[in-house]
Amino acid sequence: MKLCCPDCHERSRIREITPVPLRRKRMVNVIMIWALIALFILQPGIAHDGAVSGASLFAQALLPYLLPYIILTQWLLKLPASGTNSHGWLRYLKAYTLGSFGGFPVGAVTVSEMKRNGQLSAYESSLLLAACHAPGPMFIVGYVGLELFGDTLSGWKLLLAIHAANILFFLAVLVLLSFRIRDGDRQPSAPERKLSTAPLLDAFKESSSIIILVATTVVFFSSLGSVLTNVIQAAASVEMGIVKTAVLSLFEMTSGVQSAAQHFYGSPIFPYLIAAILSVNGLSIHMQVFVIARSAGLSLRPYVIGRIFSVAAVPIFLYLLL
User: Fold this and answer.
1) The total number of structural domains that make up the chain
2) I need a surface site. Which of 184, 191, 291, 297 has the fewest CB within 10 A?
3) Is 34 within a domain?
4) Mean pLDDT taken over the chain
5) Are 253 and 279 in contact (CB under 8 A)?
């Protein structure tokens, strides 16, 4: 049968050469996107309130702590390296120190930049992506420890539990996989771009794009979490505190922590619930890490496994410390 126009012929040709699983995946994505658009249209007030909450959260709790650290980290990484052939543990220590103490997603930024600079191989970078991933000390000790737990010592114990899980995971993966990897995979790769002639200016440029990514994900997922919370509450007869905490924790970590403090404060499980929420991270943080890691060509499998391990390990370590 003759097709009516060249466009129809082209669409038909594309359908013929596109594998069925890809077409199904695309169809699922399209349906999901239109469903979310409909939810936002039907609940504009809830969506607006969630977006405002996310913007306020970003401006008050994330931006003041995250931006200065990202700029300084980027500035340091833009400086000419003393040498890419230094001992592995020195490079790992540098990545862990810079990446694990600035909050999310500084770890992904640090590891990706070191891979581009030729200081880490793709294999090392992928493993470090999972290990160099922790909330900032100021957030854990100041906000979670002092304001939620009531003392800074509990905040320090939670921070120690998070880093203990990260280090244990990294060491375990190195031991299990080291005999499978060829020696060439452990060698730092050649730099992917020329050395910066203006490190500070380039640091500001790179930091601005990272901050925009963080702001976008926080606002979007905060709004989406608010809308879905309202839908679930209306559709099912469930306790609001549980639903709100679970949904917000899935989408935006800080909002989930705030909801847990509102509904579960004083409960015996409260500290461990906070530890679990911080380990889950939420889709907002995961999306930030995925975008940054993909831009550097890093494998995300160690990161996913690391997050699953942290969800189980961090609350246990915190229980032992408390």
Assistant:
1) 1
2) 184
3) no
4) 82
5) no
Say yes or no to pLDDT of 80 above 60.
Answer: yes
**Are 318 and 158 spatial neighbours (Cβ–Cβ below 8 Å)?**
yes
Q: Angle at the Cα of 88 (from 304 to 198), degrees rounded to 5?
A: 85
Q: Is residue 32 part of a domain?
A: no
Short-list 238, 237, 261, CA closest to 249: 261
Instruction: Label residue 290 by pLDDT band (50, 70, 90).
Output: very high
- Maximum C-alpha span of the chain: 76
For residue 308, tell me if it sits in a domain.
yes
Looking at the domain assignment, is residue 131 inside a domain? yes
- What is the distance between the alpha carbons of residues 214 and 54, in angstroms, rounded to a whole number? 11
CB 127 within 8 A of CB 94: no
Q: CB-based contacts of 150: which residues, under 8 Å, 6+ apart? A: none
User: 50, 244 in Cβ contact below 8 A?
Assistant: no
Judge residue 198's burial from the number of C-beta atoms within 10 Å of its C-beta, 0-12 exposed, 13-18 middle, 19 or more buried.
Answer: exposed
pLDDT, tens only, 119-154:
888 888 888 898 889 888 888 888 888 888 888 899
Domain that holds residue 309: 46-321
Give pTM, 2 decimals.
0.79
CA distance 308 to 304: 6
Given a contact cutoff of 8 angstroms between Cβ atoms, the answer to whether 225 and 247 are in contact is yes
Whole-number Å distance between alpha carbons of 8 and 240:
50
DSSP code at position 268? T
Please tell me the predicted confidence (pLDDT) of residue 1: 47
Structural tokens at position 124: 């090392």
* DSSP-derived secondary structure letter, 85: T
Selection from 157, 174, 194 nearest residue 315 by Cα: 157
Greater confidence, 224 or 174?
224
